[in-house]
Write a structure and sequence with these properties.
Layout (H helix, E strand, L loop, with lengths): L2 H16 L21 E5 L2 E3 L4 E6 L6 E3 L3 H4 L1 E5 L11 E6 L5 E8 L5 E10 L10 E4 L7 E6 L6 E8 L7 E12 L4 E11 L15 E15 L2 E8 L4 E9 L3
Parallel strand pairs: 2-8, 5-7
Antiparallel strand pairs: 1-3, 3-6, 4-5, 7-8, 9-10, 9-16, 10-11, 11-12, 12-13, 13-14, 14-15, 15-16
Length: 257
């Protein structure tokens, strides 16, 4: 084994030490599909600031989904119009995008061609605000030592980016790497909301010996995240899967060093 390979392993062990010792317990974003024969609406993220893109999920066997804003002025409802499919349903989820332009609690309904409503959801849109706490640094969850978030929070722009260290649901699962992007401050600066992206290796490895080496990454959105500030050293993080369902909650503490 080369000295370079040893130094890389030492570096990774150092990162693990900063996040405390590894734990068998872990979290991951669920990938279980909704019931293909039951209609429901998912929203990711459900709560965010004005101007933040939202993804609306039409769960259930449908054809193309059309987003209709014509009833907002009369009934206050944003309408997802669908045509049910009983045969040939391969992917029981369709998505559309929506960008709220004003502060509101928006009602979303799913309608069949006859006008009947088969599902409802809400989108909460709040005002953007400057942050109340600078999150820059490393954070860990004492109940799942080894899991945590490294936040990069710019004082100048208030932009925030996070790298989340998680693990699979079994002891043999590989380490999962997520990045938190498109993060917006809301709720008077006490809430940070954005999207979670999972990174996986793409392309060929460049290392000669072993498999621990830099590789190009492919990323895909897997859900949304809400970070609620408790105080300067404690935050509550809730993860939602790509269908808008709550996946898990993690209480993080700032790592002091």
């Amino acid at each position: 084994m080369s000295r370079f390979t040893i130094s890389l392993r030492t570096f990774y062990c150092g990162v693990g030490f900063l996040l405390l010792s590894l734990s068998n317990a872990g979290h991951s974003f669920t990938t279980i599909l909704p019931d293909r024969f039951a209609f429901s609406i998912g929203v990711a993220p459900r709560t965010s600031a004005v101007g933040s893109p939202r993804t609306l999920f039409a769960n259930g066997c449908t054809g193309p989904v059309t987003l209709d804003e014509s009833e907002v002025a009369t009934t206050g409802a944003l309408v997802m119009r669908i045509v049910p499919q009983s045969l040939g349903c391969i992917e029981p989820t369709k998505t559309v995008s929506f960008i709220p332009r004003s502060i509101s609690t928006q009602r979303v309904v799913m309608k069949l061609p006859d006008g009947s409503i088969v599902a409802e959801a809400t989108i909460e849109t709040v005002a953007q605000a400057p942050s109340t706490v600078n999150l820059d640094g490393m954070w860990f969850d004492p109940t799942t030592n080894g899991s945590g978030i490294s936040f990069h929070h710019s004082v100048a722009s208030d932009n925030t980016f996070g790298t989340w260290f998680l693990y699979g649901t079994t002891n043999t699962s590989v380490t999962r790497w997520y990045s938190l992007q498109n993060m917006k401050w809301a709720q008077s600066g006490a809430m940070l909301v954005g999207l979670a992206y999972e990174a996986t290796a793409s392309g060929l490895p460049i290392c000669v010996v072993g498999d621990d080496c830099p590789r190009p990454a492919a990323v895909r959105p897997v859900g949304s995240v809400t970070v609620s500030v408790i105080d300067e050293n404690n935050v509550r993080v809730e993860a939602f899967d790509q269908y808008g369902r709550s996946a898990f909650v993690s209480l993080l503490k700032r790592l002091q060093f």
